[in-house]
């Protein structure tokens, strides 16, 4: 059996490593001409770290990331609205959230893939097990894994069309070479404005870097020059604590990564014939729960496990989808709803939301963590 993986993002690379561990042959193709170690930070949830334990990568990731002992939501006056004790989560589920630079994560994953990653290979068409690339070359396999992200060509051509949804929020991200004060390095989270639909965060990553992001509720497609974006962020953060403003002031405007936040309505089918989808191609989610990559990582592990267990590829796809789809879709829905709640611009609505979050019983938050982290990685 030979698999063709389309896309060498977090999902595609993790799939390659999982297939490799199971002794399944694969080739991996990526549209980008080179794998640059760019991007901002990312939080890898307890569930992602549990998969990487099984793939033998957790130690390397822990060495280059920061374990978040507590994760908070605060308002701009510093009042805690929600506090999660990650050490308790670690005790219950085996790991906790780690914050890492995307470039570092990519380096660790790429180093673990023993098959060369074919770069500059943009998939434009698939027909009967043959993948056609923009440069005129082709690849053939017994199965094709679409790990080509939210705007997946593989999904749109071979499986189903997605209906994209704008979350109502745009996002700016950046990393800064610095360390937060020691007391804040392992205690991180986000702050919500009391009006205007602004959220912002600064969290320590490994390798002496800090990850900054800010979201704002505005119509899709709003364009800003780096200088205008910088000025806007500065203005919006005036009501936020000075520690956050200090991180912001160290950002190089040219390094700001800007994007509107989209997902798509859950799709009912993740495979067709010899083609199967994983990660954002199957279930892109808004980043409100910090779970998109973690879900892709779970997909990768489970798909490889079924491919190694089942002799019939379609039976493997069917079991993979049956095990994953409901769970991933509930993450997408929770994240989408949270995004709508946090987009509230109106002052009264925002304060009421903050009040309700602050008074949400602990058991509700615990139930959510149980859903996210109590993942059975065994396949029957
Ligand atoms: C602002 C923001 C913050 C986020 N924060 C977090 C977080 O903290 N934690 C978390 O778990 N998730 C987070 N996510 C989500 C996470 O980034 C994604 O869920 C994750 O990257 C999905 O991985 P993927 O491999 O499925 O897709 P992608 O990362 O999109 O990778 C797809 C790859 O396929 C390649 N490709 C695309 N088209 C083709 C083609 N036609 N042919 C060949 N190759 C192709 C692309 O170049 C890319 O390398 C965040 C997302 C955003 C937008």
Protein architecture, described:
The protein has 380 residues and is α/β, with parallel strands linked by helices. The protein has two domains: 2-67 and 99-164 and 265-344, FAD/NAD(P)-binding domain (3-Layer(bba) Sandwich), CATH 3.50.50; 166-262, D-Amino Acid Oxidase, Chain A, domain 2. It has 14 helices and 19 strands. The strands form four sheets. The chain has a seven-stranded mixed sheet with strand order 6-5-14-15-16-13-17. The protein has a six-stranded mixed sheet with strand order 8-2-1-12-19-18, with helices on both faces. It has a three-stranded antiparallel sheet with strand order 3-7-4. Helix 1 (10-21) packs parallel to helix 5 (102-112), helix 1 (10-21) packs parallel to helix 11 (292-309) and helix 2 packs parallel to helix 11. The longest helix has 30 residues, at 313-342. The two termini are 21 Å apart. The model has no long low-confidence stretch (mean pLDDT 95). The structure holds flavin-adenine dinucleotide. The site of flavin-adenine dinucleotide has 34 residues, from helix 1, strand 3, strand 13, strand 17 and helix 10. It comes from Chitinophaga arvensicola. Residues 2-333 form the FAD-binding domain. Keywords: Monooxygenase, Oxidoreductase. Pfam families: FAD_binding_3. This is 2-polyprenyl-6-methoxyphenol hydroxylase.
């Amino acid at each position: 059996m030979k698999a063709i993986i389309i896309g060498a993002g977090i999902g595609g690379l993790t799939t390659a490593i999982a297939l490799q561990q199971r002794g399944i042959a694969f080739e991996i193709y990526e549209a980008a001409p080179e794998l640059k170690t760019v991007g901002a930070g990312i939080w890898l949830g307890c569930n992602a770290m549990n998969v990487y334990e099984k793939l033998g990568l957790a130690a390397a990731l822990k060495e280059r990331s920061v374990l978040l002992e507590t994760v908070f939501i605060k308002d701009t006056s510093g009042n805690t609205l929600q506090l999660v004790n990650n050490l308790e989560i670690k005790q219950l589920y085996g790991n906790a959230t780690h914050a890492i630079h995307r470039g570092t994560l990519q380096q660790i994953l790429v180093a673990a893939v023993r098959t060369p990653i074919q770069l500059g290979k943009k998939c434009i068409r698939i027909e009967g097990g043959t993948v056609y690339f923009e440069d005129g070359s082709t690849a053939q396999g017994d199965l094709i894994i679409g790990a080509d992200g939210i705007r997946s060509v593989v999904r749109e051509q071979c499986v189903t069309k997605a209906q994209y949804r704008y979350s109502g929020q745009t996002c700016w991200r950046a990393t800064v070479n610095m360390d937060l004060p020691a007391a804040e390095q392992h205690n991180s989270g986000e702050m919500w404005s009391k009006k205007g639909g602004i959220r912002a965060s600064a969290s320590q990553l490994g390798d002496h870097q800090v990850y900054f992001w800010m979201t704002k509720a505005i119509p899709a497609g709003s364009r800003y020059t780096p200088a205008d974006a910088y000025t806007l962020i500065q203005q919006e953060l005036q009501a936020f604590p000075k520690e956050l403003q200090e991180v912001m002031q160290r950002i190089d405007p040219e390094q700001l990564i800007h994007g509107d936040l989209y997902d798509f309505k859950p799709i009912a089918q993740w495979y067709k014939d010899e083609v199967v989808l994983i990660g954002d191609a199957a279930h892109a989610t808004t980043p409100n729960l910090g779970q998109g990559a973690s879900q892709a990582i779970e997909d990768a592990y489970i798909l490889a496990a079924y491919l190694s267990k089942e002799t019939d590829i379609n039976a493997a796809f069917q079991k993979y989808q049956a095990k994953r789809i409901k769970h991933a879709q509930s993450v997408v829905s929770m994240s989408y709803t949270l995004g709508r709640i946090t987009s509230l611009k109106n002052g009264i609505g925002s304060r009421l939301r903050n009040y309700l979050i602050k008074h949400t019983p602990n058991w509700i938050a615990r139930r959510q963590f149980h859903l996210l982290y109590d993942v059975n990685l065994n396949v029957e």
